[in-house]
Amino acid sequence: MASKSRWADTEEDAALEAKKKREKEEKKRLKAEKAQKAEAERRAQAEAEAAAKQRAAQEQQQRLEPPDDNIPPTKRRKITPEQDDQEKDGTTENESSAKLLRFEAGGWGKSRSVENYDKLNDIEEGAYGWVARAKEIKTGKVVALKRLKFDPNDASGLPETGLREIQILKDCSHRNIVSLREVVVGDDTSRIENIFLVLEFLEHDLMSVLGDMPEPFLASEVKTLLLQLASGVAYLHDHWVLHRDLKTSNLLLNNRGQLKIADFGMARYVGDPPPPKLTQLVVTLWYRAPELLLGAKTYGAAVDMWSVGCIFGELLTREPLLQGKNEVDELAKIFELCGIPTDESWPGFRRLPNARHLRLPKSSGTNTGPIIRARFPLLTAAGSALLSSLLSLNPDRRPTAKEMLDHEFFRQDPKPKHEAMFPTFPSKAGQERRRRRSTPNAPGRGQKAADLGTMDFSGLFASREKEERGGGFSLRMV
C-alpha cells in the first residue's frame, strides 16, 4: 500500500487548495458575467442593424415615390464643417483640414519564391527546422535558409512554434540577435510545408567552436562573449520575450567576434506577471533550470539566466556543465554542484509538483553546499560570485541580464577583449555539414513532461566525507 506524502496534508497546502478553489469559482462567475454581457451586446447590435435596415428601406421608398411639394425635403447629414461655421469658431480651412489625418497603409503582398536563392550546402538539422547556406541570385548575398518543420499528422497548419519564431524575429532589432530578412515559399504553394526563413549568415556556432579549439578561450574573450550574450538577453527580456532554449549551439559567432542569439522555436511573449500556466517542458535538458525540472508552471526570465550560467561554465571548460542522462540524473548533478535546496535557501520549493517526493540527504556532518568555487579555482572571486548567483537554485536570487552587465567581474583585469581583436576560425558552415557532438535535443512540440515519481538523493554526498578528510597523515610513536 502506497504511503501518503508527508508534505501533502499540511495546513499550508490546505490553505493553498482552498485559495485555488475560490479562484476557480471566481473565474466561473466572471466567465458567466462576460457571457451575459456579450449576449446583451449581440442583441443590441442586432436591434441596431434591424433599425438601420428599416430606415434604409423607408428612404428607398421615399426616393421611389413622386415628390410632394407640401412635404419639405429631408435634411442632409453634414459631414464637414461649412466655411461659415469655421469662421464663427475662429478656425481657418487649413487648421480644420489639419485635424483629418491620413496614413499610408501597407498592403498584403505575395511572398517571394525560394527559387530566388541557390542552395550551397547543408549546415544542420535541428528540432524545429533544417538550415542550409544559400546565395541570393540577384545580389550574390550569402544567407542562412531555414525550412520550418511540420508534423504530417497535425492538421492545424503552420505550427505555433514557427509562427512565434517569425513574429519575434520580425519584432527584434539588436546587434546580438540574428536578423530575419524575409520569409519565402516554394513554388508549389499547395504544400504548406514549403516555408523558409531567410536569416543572416554567420560562420560558426559556439558549440562547434568550443569542440574544435585546442585551448579554451582566454578570460578576456570569455568576458566579451558573456557581455554580448547578456546584452542580447537583456533586450529580449525588456521586450517581454523568453527565449527558453539558450545553449551554445544556438549562439552564432562570426569572424569579427560578434555573437548573436538564434533559434527562437521555443521562445514566446510573456507579460508581467507571466501567464499562470506555462509548459515546464522547455529548454534543452543540460541547460534546464531546477524549477522547471521540479514542475513549475509559473516562471519568468530567471530560466534564461540559469541557461546563461550553464553557458558561462561551458566557456570555461569547453564541455557542457551539467550533462544529465535524464531529468532525475540532471537534478542530481545540479544538487551536487549547487548544493541541496533548503527552506532557507529556496523558500517554498517543496510546493512544486515534483518536489513533494524528494528524499534529500541530511546536512549534518556532510558539506551539502555549493562547490562552484572549488570546481573553478582559476576564476576570480568576482567571477565565482557571478557564476554562483547565475546558478542559484532559488530563481529569485539570480541576477537579471541588466544586473549581469553591471557586474564587477567585467570591470576587473583582464578587461573584455575588443571584438575586432577576436581570433578567427575556419568556417565549417561554409564547407560541409557541421560535426555535431552527442547532445540532447530541445523538447518537442506537444511532448509530455516525464513523471519523475519519488527521487532519492539521500546518498548523493556520501563520497564528500573522504574528499574533505583527504589522505591525512599519521604520527609514529617511537
Structure overview:
The structure is a single chain. The strands form four sheets. A five-stranded antiparallel β-sheet has the order 1-2-3-5-4, with helices on one face. A three-stranded antiparallel β-sheet has the order 6-8-9. Strand 1 (117-125) and strand 2 form a beta hairpin. The chain is built from 13 helices and twelve strands. The chain is globular. The model is unreliable at 467-475 (pLDDT under 50). It has 478 residues and is of the alpha+beta class. Helix 6 (219-238) packs antiparallel against helix 8 and helix 8 crosses helix 11. Helix content is 34%, strand content 11%. The chain has two domains: 115-200, 2-Layer Sandwich (Phosphorylase Kinase, domain 1); 205-460, Transferase(Phosphotransferase), domain 1 (Orthogonal Bundle). Pfam families: Pkinase. It comes from Daldinia eschscholtzii. It catalyses: L-threonyl-[protein] + ATP = O-phospho-L-threonyl-[protein] + ADP + H(+); L-seryl-[protein] + ATP = O-phospho-L-seryl-[protein] + ADP + H(+). One of its GO terms (cellular component) is nucleus. Belongs to the protein kinase superfamily. CMGC Ser/Thr protein kinase family. CDC2/CDKX subfamily.
Which labels suit this protein?
single chain; 478 residues; alpha+beta; Phosphorylase Kinase, domain 1; Transferase(Phosphotransferase), domain 1; 2 domains; five-stranded antiparallel beta sheet; three-stranded antiparallel beta sheet; 12 strands
